[in-house]
Amino acid sequence: MLKFFYSAAPNPMKVALFLEESGLAYEAIPIDGKRGDQHTPTFKVINPNSKVPAIIDDGHPVFDSNAILLYLAEKTGQFLPEDTPGARGQLLSWLMFVASGLGPFSGQAVHFRKFAPDSVPYAIKRYDFEARRHWQIVDDRLARSRYMLGDSYTIVDMAVWGWGDRLTYMLADDDIMATYPNLDRFMQEIDARPAAQRAKDLPNRHDFKTEMDEEAMRFMYPQLFAADPAL
User: Fold this and answer.
1) Residue 74 sits in the same domain as residue 129
2) Is residue 157 within 8 Å of residue 14, measured between CB atoms?
3) Which of 1, 11, 148, 222 is deepest in the core (most CB within 10 A)?
4) Average pLDDT for residues 185-201, to the nearest whole number?
5) How many CA atoms lie within 13 A of 114 on its CB side?
6) Residue 153, phi then psi, degrees to nearest 5
7) Is the Cβ–Cβ distance between 166 and 111 less than 8 Å?
8) Same domain for 67 and 125?
9) What CATH number is associated with residue 205?
10) Does the global pTM surpass 0.90?
11) Helices (H), 39-180
12) Are 19 and 66 found together in one domain?
């Protein structure tokens, strides 16, 4: 059975949605970042980068959320666009857009606003601006079609959904969806899917640590406690 190493963060939740949509049998294995599970030697064999999600499928590890989505979609033949060079190109382009831009800028926006030990106004402004710019690109795309690749529900939509579910929190804006009405419509549609409801419920099955205390900060942001190499 496929093993799914996860937490409730946006990237693992994308994969949780695929697993629930596809009907693949899987074992969910919690990796609690605040308790340092991602840094254990056992997990680092699966993902040397010490991050979730990761899977083991038929004994083979796969890590990075968008790589897992593509791997599972191609293995099962599910949630892919039509098999043409143009559709394939759009799939890869938008999947990498999420991986290289949408996710990282959104993540840095929330990090510098809520978790950085010192307030850095430039960093807050830069990442907030870039996150909002990327989400506007998504909203503009969704103004043209029901889903990111047209009328077909694909892994690109799952990748967007994982991050869109946290948008209000990440950008500290309770009215953010009024800025992105097409994204709002898209998110509500996916949220209403039974698979999305099951994916959201998955973390409730495990006892994840919620307190962001010093121990959690050491595991989540070890650079804060590392010695300065210049000294």
Assistant:
1) no
2) no
3) 148
4) 98
5) 13
6) -80, 120
7) no
8) no
9) 3.40.30.10
10) yes
11) 41-46, 65-76, 85-97, 103-110, 121-142, 155-164, 167-170, 176-179
12) yes
